[in-house]
Design goal:
This protein is an alpha+beta fold. It has a single domain, classed as Alpha-Beta Plaits, CATH 3.30.70. Helices cover 30% and strands 36% of the residues. It has 2 helices and 5 strands. The protein has helices at residues 14-26, 49-61; strands spanning 2-9, 30-35, 41-46, 68-76, 85-87. Strand 2 (30-35) and strand 3 form a beta hairpin. It is globular and about 30 Å long. The two termini are 21 Å apart. The model has no long low-confidence stretch (mean pLDDT 91).
Length: 88
């Protein structure tokens, strides 16, 4: 599966993207976390559905409680074009 999530809150910055990258790599996901101009962070992750669900749970309140105020998500078929997990 491919998960695209838009995270709102106090999330822009290296620390939050590092937490997301670390968790995604633990789960074996490929993708990226990038700051958007409107203050959100866009997370794109591709891998098994269970791993993507675990990352989504992490984004909604995992290791960074209080930072995230909302998460919107979209599920699509995997493209297979992602390698590793990068911060942008």
């Amino acid at each position: 599966m491919r998960l695209t999530a838009w995270v709102r809150g106090h999330v822009q910055g290296v620390g939050f993207r590092w937490w997301v990258r670390s968790r995604a790599l633990e789960l074996g996901l490929a993708g990226s976390a990038a700051n958007l101009a409107d203050g959100r962070v866009q997370v794109i992750a591709e891998g098994p559905r269970a791993a993507c669900d675990a990352l989504l749970g992490f984004l909604r309140g995992g290791a960074t409680p209080g930072m995230v105020t909302g998460v919107a998500e979209r599920w699509t078929a995997p493209r297979g074009d992602l390698r590793g997990f990068v911060e942008r």
